Amino acid sequence: MGSLGQLSEQGLIWKGNQTRSADGLNQQIAPNRSTGFEALDRLLLCGGWPESGLVELLVPANGVGELSLLLPWLARTIQEEGRKVAFINAPLIPNIATLVAYGIAPQQVWLLRAQNQREVLWSQQQCLQEGHCCALFMWHDAKTSPATLRKLHHAAQRGRCLGISIRPTSVQQSATPAPYRLQLESVAGQAQVTALKRRGGWGGESVRLDLTAKPKLPPLPGNNVELRSLN
Fold it and tell me: Where are the transmembrane segments (predicted)?
């Protein structure tokens, strides 16, 4: 029998800051960047949004705060890494003025339009794995299979990208390969986020957030951003 050091080098000893990959080997858990909401950081049990992989957001309708929930994290990540955020076949056009107010320049935003489902999935996979984007917003209906989502999750891990899969609340009982599945809804004028699935703990816990209050963000380096349309 080998020494503890040899077993550790072979990935046969699990440590608290590791997770188990699909091939059975231990992998280091990448440090997370705060969501910008302390209550949400605690809900996720990991101090922030994961650096990569798939996160599901279940919503009753489009436009209930999906982008606002990610904006503080998105602003910090783009400013520190200089990468892009992409939206593929977004049902609603993101408010560019809001993005600029958070320090996200228009040229750091990609709005992509695919013609059919096959092209949509191909575009999603490329954006996730190529490394140009720190985040990709995607919309998947109830017919999207776990196998498809698993491919996207692995693509996001390869590209060190956070894939945000926005889905209807009707899928909350279905299986998902995403480590995080959150339900987002409006309750009494606030955003209620319920953790249906999360890494390292049971689901079912909820928090309420004021998405209208802009968190304190680091200043955008350089000159003022010129607002221009995205074509």
Answer: none
